[in-house]
Specification:
The protein is of the alpha/beta class. The protein has a seven-stranded mixed β-sheet with strand order 13-12-11-10-9-8-15, with helices on one face. A six-stranded mixed β-sheet has the order 5-4-3-2-1-14. Helix 1 (27-43) runs parallel beside helix 2.
Amino acid sequence: MRPFNSIYTHGFVRVAVCIPSLRVADPAYNVTRTIGLAERASVANAAVALFPELGLSAYTCDDLFQQDALLEGVLDALNRLIDASRSLTPVLLVGAPLRIDGALYNCAIVIYHGRILGVVPKSYIPNYREFYEKRQFSAARDALRQTITLAGATVPFGNDLIFVAGNVPGFALHAEICEDVWVPAPPSSFAALAGATILANLSASNITIGKADYRRMLCAAQSGTCIAAYLYSAAGPGESTTDLAWDGHALIYELGELLAETGRFADDERMITADIDLERIVQERMRTTSFADAIGDHRERLRTMRHIPFTFDIPEGDVPLQRIIDRFPYVPGDPSRRDERCYEAYNIQVHGLMKRLISTGIEKVVIGVSGGLDSTHALIVAARTMDRLNLPRTNILAYTMPGFATSEITLANARSLMHALGVTASEIDIRPSCMQMLRDIGHPFARGEPVYDVTFENVQAGDRTSHLFRLANMHGALVVGTGDLSELALGWATYGVGDHMSHYNVNASAPKTLIQHLIRWVADSGQFDDATSAILRSILSTEISPELIPPGDADHSHPAQSTQAIIGPYELQDFNLFYITRYGFRPSKVAFLAWNAWRDASRGDWPPGLPGDERRQYDLATIRRWLDVFLRRFFKTSQFKRSALPNGPKIGSGGSLSPRGDWRAPSDAEAEVWLDELRRNVPDDC
C-alpha cells in the first residue's frame, strides 16, 4: 500500500516543463543539457518531463536541417538520451528533426525507461510572417506510414497517438507541436475527446510584444475546453537571435487554471513542476454531458486514434503535494478575487429575490432576525432588494423572536441591525406560545424539569417559523428563508415548519464560510452606512449557535450552545462538502486535501480581514473525525430534508443541494461505503 502522504496515492501525477540552455546545431551539447534537466525532473518525482520543439538540434537551424551531419548528430544524441532514460522517473517528450521516407518531419519523441514509446510529427507547418518551416519540414498528413524504425526499434508514428499508463487511472498523454494549438481544431482537442488527460505542447515560439499573454489565454482555453491539463514549453537561452528573440516561456494549466509558470527571459535553464489532479479531470468529463456529446459527433475520427500502453513505475515513499489547496474553496484568498466573487454572490441573491417579488406582485417580505450570521445576511440582501426595486425598506417586516436560550448579545445585535437598516422591526417573545405547546404535548419541561431534548429545541424553531408564515399571510408578504448550504448538507435544520422552510431562500446555496465573508465584504466595502457595518462586525465575532438550550445559571450574555462543537468546524465541513459534491472524490482524498490545506496555519493565503484567532490549523486525526461526522450526516440521515427545499438561487460552482439543481439522491441511502473507505485509507496521523 502506498503511503498516505504521496500524491500518487490520491490520483495526482507530477509534471515538469523544462527549458534547457541550447546551442544552435550542437546536438551533443543539447542532449547533455536535456539529460541534466531530465535528471532534475526525476529527482522531483515527476511522471512527465516536457522539452521544447526541436530541442536536440535547436529550433533556429534553418537550412542546416538539410545537412546530413546535423541529422546524424541528432540521432546520436537521441541514442544517448534513450540510454540515460533507463534510470529516470519521467516520461520524456523531446523535440528533434527526423528524416523519414525522404521527407523531414518536426517531431516529438516520447521516451520512457530506455525505449521510444512513439513519435509524433507536427501537424500544422507555419509559413507566414517570420515562419518558413515548409521550406524544410513536411506535415503529419504527408506521412506514408504509421510505424517507423528508429534507434533500432519499430515504433508508432503519427499525430494520433495517446500514451496510456495502464496502472495509473486517468494517466493518458498526448503531444502536439507549437503551431498545432494555434489552429481552429488542434490535434489535442481530438486527443482529449479520445481520452488524453495530459496535453503537452513542444513549442519554440519566438517572443514579440504581447505574445506571452496570448499564449496564456490559448493554453488556459485549451485546458478548459478539453477538460484537461495543458503543458507548454517555449525555446529559451541559446536559440539564434539573427532575426528573432526567445523568452523561454513554460506554462502548466489544469482546467483553465494556471498551476505554474516560468519567469521569462532567463539567462539560464529553467524547470517548473506542478501536480495534476487526474481524478478531477476524469470526474469533470464524466459530469459534463456535452463533452460526451462531442465524442459522439467525432466518433469516426476518434476510433482511429491509437492508444499506446505502458506501465509507469510509481515513485516509492512520500511524495508530498506541491500545489496550494485553498482552505476555503468557496472563498478566494486573493483580495481582488474575493471582492469580485462576493459582489457576484451578493447580487445573484438580490436579483433572485427581486425576480420572485416582481413575478408574484408581492412588495413585502417577512424575515426572522436572530442576530446570527444567516438571518443577518438574508436581511441585508432583502434591504438591498428593496433599494433596487425602489420600495421602502419598511416593506421588510423583520421579527426577532427571543426564546429560552437567546443571549443578550444576539438580541442586542438583532435589534440594532433592524434599526440601522430602517426596516419595520418587531419583537415577539415566543416563550409563552412554546410553553403552551410543551404543555399540550406533555413535555417534561412544562412541569419544570430541565429536559432539553430535540423536541424542546424543535418546538422553538417550529414556533418561530409558524409565526413568520402566519404574519406573511396577514400582511400579504413573502417569507424569506435564512438557512444556508452548510446546514442543509449536515441536516442542521428543523424539517417542515422550521428553519428548513420558507417561500424563497436567498441563502440556499451559500455555505456558512461564504456567508461569513459576504457579511465581512458588505461591511468593508461600504454597502451600508458605518453604523450598520459596525453591527455586522459584531455579529461576525459572535459564536455560531442555534440558541435553543438555556445556559442555566451560566452567563446569559453570550450563546451557551456551540453548533460547531456538535457538527464540527464549518470551515472543515464546507471543505468536505465542496470536494465530495463538486468532484465526487473518495473520503481519503478529501482528507488528504484537507490535511494539506489546514495542517499549518502559516502556509498559504488567508481571506482578507479574517481575524488572527480564527486562522486555525487541524491535524489529520481531527480532520478524519469531523469527516466521519460529515459522511454519516450527509449520506445517511439528511437527504430527506434536501429533497423538499424551497426555491432559491444557485450562486457558485460549488453547487446547490436542491433536487432541481446539482444534487439528486435517495433519502434512504447508506453511508458505509464512504465510511469504510475513510477508515481503511486514512491513518490517525501522518
